Amino acid sequence: MATVQENWQTKCTSISQRTKYIFNTALLSDVKFIVPVSNGERKSKVIPAHKLVLAIGSPVFFAMFCGQMADTRDSIELPDCEYEGVLELFRFIYCDEVKLTGSNVMHVLYLAKKYLVPSLAEKCAEFLRKNLDASNVFTILPHAQKFEDKDLENRCWKVIEMHTEEAVTSDDFVVIDRSLVESVVKSEKLNVKEVELFKAVNRWAEKKIDEKGIVTDGNAKRRIIGEEIVKEIRFPLMSQKEFATFVVDSNILNVQEIVNMIKHYNEVLTSPLPYLQSPRTGVLRRVCRFNEYRAAGMAGCWNYGGYWNALILSVDKNVRLYGVQHFGCEGCEYSVSMEINDAASNLSLAKKSGTYCSEKDSDGIYYGFDVLIDSPVILESGRKYEIRSMISGPQSWYGAKGETSVNFEGINFTFSRSDSPSNGTNEQRGQFPVFLCTHSG
Question: Quick one: 266 exposed, middle or buried, by C-beta within 10 A (0-12, 13-18, 19+)?
Fold first, then answer.
């Protein structure tokens, strides 16, 4: 037993300080829990505890120690738990504190539900909501569904809908259940090219085959994926090159299905395809405003010296703005602080900061990167909005011969120069080549 301070009770001015003092110590302990270091491992650790404290903190522990079938043992094994999670459960019961991390929060949430400690479960859910992103959404979503946390589940689906490509290319996607893969491909609101969605499903199938230890071939993948998922992939939305490069080589479709797609591309197909051909509504529209692009290194290339790049944008129909593409240079990184403000009131509607690596744009013309905001901003018809970014990094490409007005899918986007001190960006030249948006409503 660790050294006990003399008259330690007099130094603790509340009951919570006294229970905190005896947390995870042998002092007055009348029960100990033997818990695996991690679930399923033989190596275990011992957590000393106090039946009274646990009983007043959890109805399950109350039943365990004080019910008709009370457990009188002084040593209890918890083989289905993990040491770190149990320690945090006890820390909360003793101290009203918890140390949550990405690696322990799921198990702590499981224990909070198992031992009926709702205030701890809420802290876990709050931690997950704050730390939810595309890289971990497919770890969090199954737990949200299991524990019937509708708010967290809805937040997960919003992340998937907005950041689909990043989510389906994450390490977590290949280990999810088939039912969740099916839910994803059936979703109408996905922001991903159809070929990237197919590649993610193919990777998922290959992972499942590897886990089963069977030979990887097209028939095996087709059986793993299942017909419900295959028919939800919108193959006609892929280019012929994408289809030939990724779908044909996967061997998931049979010969007749491939022949039908080839006929479709060559407009000689006489019967309808069994696949949807309409774009998913969640796919972000890319509204371009420049007619020419000037490379970094050319005369007049874009430099950054502590000035804003700013532009005024207005629309004649409501749209949801998800982000703005910025110019960059090949292989270079840029630090960006972007703001979207109501131009009339100067009220801030969204901010986003981060470091971004420049890549070639989807058409292979110039180098740039997308800055996506955490929640879309609804741009209302007739109002003016200022888009501005403070950018640090090497000189970059820039746009020229910009349009003051662009009609895109029936919506007029109008651009004008901002009154803010600027690095030179205006309606004719400079930054912000593409605005990423969807129709509102």
Answer: exposed
Q: Which residue has the tokens 């509204």?
A: 287
The H helix count followed by the E strand count for the chain is: 16, 16
Segment 132-172, tens digit of pLDDT: 999 999 999 999 998 888 989 999 998 998 889 899 999 99
Which of 370, 190, 339 minimizes the C-alpha distance to 279?
190
Q: Is the pTM of this model over 0.70?
A: no
By C-alpha distance, which of 374, 327, 326, 318 is closest to 350? Answer: 374
Please report, as a single letter, which amino acid is at residue 231: K
Instruction: Let me know: does 24 contact 50? Beta carbons within 8 Å.
Output: no
Instruction: Judge whether 402 and 313 are in contact, CB under 8 Å.
Output: no
pLDDT per position as a tens digit, 184-228: 999 998 988 899 999 999 999 999 999 988 877 889 999 999 999
CA distances from 245 to 12, 40, 101, 198, 199 (A): 70, 43, 41, 12, 11
